[in-house]
Design goal:
Number of domains: 1
Mean pLDDT: 96
CATH superfamily: Aldolase class I
Order of helices and strands: HHEHEHHEHEHEHEHHEHEHHHH
CATH architecture: Alpha-Beta Barrel
Structural class: alpha/beta
Helix content: 40-55%
Largest sheet: 8 strands, parallel
Length: about 350
C-alpha cells in the first residue's frame, strides 16, 4: 500500500489508524484549517498562542479590536483583551463543531485558558471556567495544575466542564489531575448527571521538561550524554501513561510543547492527544518518520537511570511519588512557564493598549 495515496499526511494516517488524536496547537484560522485538513480533532490556546495569532492574522483582527474598544467606552485593556480572546475561541470552536457533533462531544473541542494570574486562586479559576463554558458547546477549559488549580478541576468537573490541565510537566501532577477529575465525575454520577459526553485531558508539556533539565545541566555544570536530555519528557509521559492505563482513569494524557519528533513519534498508538503547533505539524507531515505504535516501547532504562542519578528534578517529574501537591507551584518548569504565560498576557495587554491609547510619538 502506498501510504501517500491513501492518506494526506503522516498525521492524517495516525488519526485514521490509531487511537492517538491530533490537535492543532493554535486557534489561528489558517493554522486550524490546515490542521483539520490533516485530521486534527481539537485545538488549544494560551496567552502566548493568542499573541502569536495576532502577529500572524492581525489583518483579520485589527478592525474588530477597534470595534470592541468603541463598544466598551469604560472597559479596561483587560476587558478588551478577554473579549478578544473569547471571540478567537468562538471562531475556533465553530470550525471544530462538526467534529464535536459527529463524535458526541468526545472530540472536536477548543481549549481556552484561564487567566494565568489566577494560578493561586481556586475561586477565580472556577468562576472564569464556568463563564468560559457558556461561550460554545464545544469549549474545553485549561486550568493550571497548581495546588489551587487541582481543587478547581474537581469542582468544575462536577459542574460538567471538560477540563484540560495545563502548566503540567510531571507524573505527580498528572495523577493529581486524574484523581481530581475522577472525584468530580463521581460526584456528578452520584446525582444522576451525565458524564458520557465529557472529555477531560491532562497535558504534560514534554518539551518544557527537557528545557528545564537542560537549564539545570547548564546552571550546575552537569555533564551527561546530550542525547539523553532529549528523552526526559518522553520518559515522564510514558511512565504517566502506563500508570493511567493501569488505574483506568477517564482523563486522557495530552503531549504538548514540541522540541523534536520524539514528542510526537514516541506517543503514536497511545490513547492520548498530541497537540502540535502548525510549524511542527508541517515538519512532521514532510518527514520520513513512520506511523507505527511506539507508546508501549519503554525509554532505554540506561537513559532513565542516568537522568535520575544526575538530576533530582527528573526524578521528581518521573516518579509517581516524586512530588507532593504542595510542591507543584515551586517546581522549576512550573515557575518558568507561569512567568512566560503571565509575560505573554502582559504583552497582549500592551498590544491592546496601543489601540486604546496610541503612542503619539510614533
Amino acid at each position: 500500500m502506498n501510504t501517500h495515496t491513501t492518506y494526506k499526511s503522516p498525521l492524517h494516517e495516525m488519526g485514521a489508524t490509531t487511537k492517538t488524536d491530533y490537535w492543532n496547537d493554535s486557534c489561528a484560522i489558517s493554522e486550524l484549517t490546515y490542521g483539520i485538513e490533516h485530521g486534527a480533532v481539537g485545538a488549544t490556546t494560551n496567552p502566548t498562542i493568542v499573541l502569536n495569532v495576532l502577529n500572524l492574522e492581525m489583518d483579520l483582527w485589527r478592525d474588530r479590536i477597534k470595534e470592541i474598544i468603541a463598544e466598551n467606552p469604560t472597559g479596561t485593556e483587560d476587558d478588551v483583551a478577554w473579549q478578544l480572546i473569547e471571540e478567537m475561541a468562538r471562531k475556533g470552536a465553530d470550525l471544530l463543531l462538526p467534529t464535536f457533533t459527529e463524535n458526541k462531544g468526545l472530540k472536536g473541542r477548543l481549549s481556552i485558558q484561564t487567566n494565568p494570574k489566577f494560578f493561586r486562586n481556586t475561586e477565580k479559576l472556577v468562576e472564569q471556567t464556568l463563564h468560559f463554558q457558556t461561550l460554545a458547546e464545544n469549549i474545553q477549559v485549561k486550568i493550571p495544575a497548581t495546588k489551587a488549580g487541582i481543587y478547581a478541576m474537581e469542582e468544575v468537573t462536577y459542574q460538567g466542564v471538560s477540563i484540560n490541565a495545563t502548566v503540567s510537566f510531571t507524573t505527580p501532577q498528572a495523577l493529581a489531575v486524574a484523581e481530581a477529575v475522577e472525584r468530580g465525575l463521581k460526584r456528578r454520577e452520584a446525582e444522576g448527571k451525565d458524564t458520557t459526553t465529557m472529555a477531560p485531558v491532562c497535558t504534560i508539556m514534554v518539551g518544557r521538561v527537557d528545557d528545564w533539565i537542560k537549564v539545570i545541566a547548564n546552571k550546575e555544570n552537569i555533564i551527561t550524554n546530550p542525547d539523553y536530555l532529549e528523552w526526559a519528557g518522553v520518559a515522564v509521559f510514558k511512565n504517566a501513561y502506563k500508570i493511567f492505563q493501569e488505574r483506568g482513569y477517564r482523563t486522557r494524557l495530552l503531549a504538548a510543547a514540541y522540541r523534536n519528533h520524539y514528542h510526537w513519534s514516541e506517543f503514536i498508538g497511545g490513547d492520548v492527544v498530541v497537540t502540535i503547533p502548525c510549524k511542527w505539524a508541517k515538519r512532521f507531515n514532510g518527514s520520513d518518520v513512520t506511523v507505527e505504535d511506539r507508546i508501549d516501547t519503554p525509554v532505554d532504562p540506561a537513559i532513565v537511570a542516568e537522568l535520575k542519578k544526575k538530576f533530582k528534578d527528573f526524578g521528581m517529574a518521573h516518579d509517581a511519588d516524586g512530588m507532593t501537591i504542595d510542591e507543584f507551584d515551586t517546581y522549576g518548569a512550573t515557575v518558568r512557564t507561569l512567568r512566560g504565560f503571565v509575560g505573554s498576557y502582559a504583552d497582549l495587554l500592551s498590544v491592546v493598549r496601543d489601540f486604546m491609547i496610541p503612542n503619539p510619538d510614533k
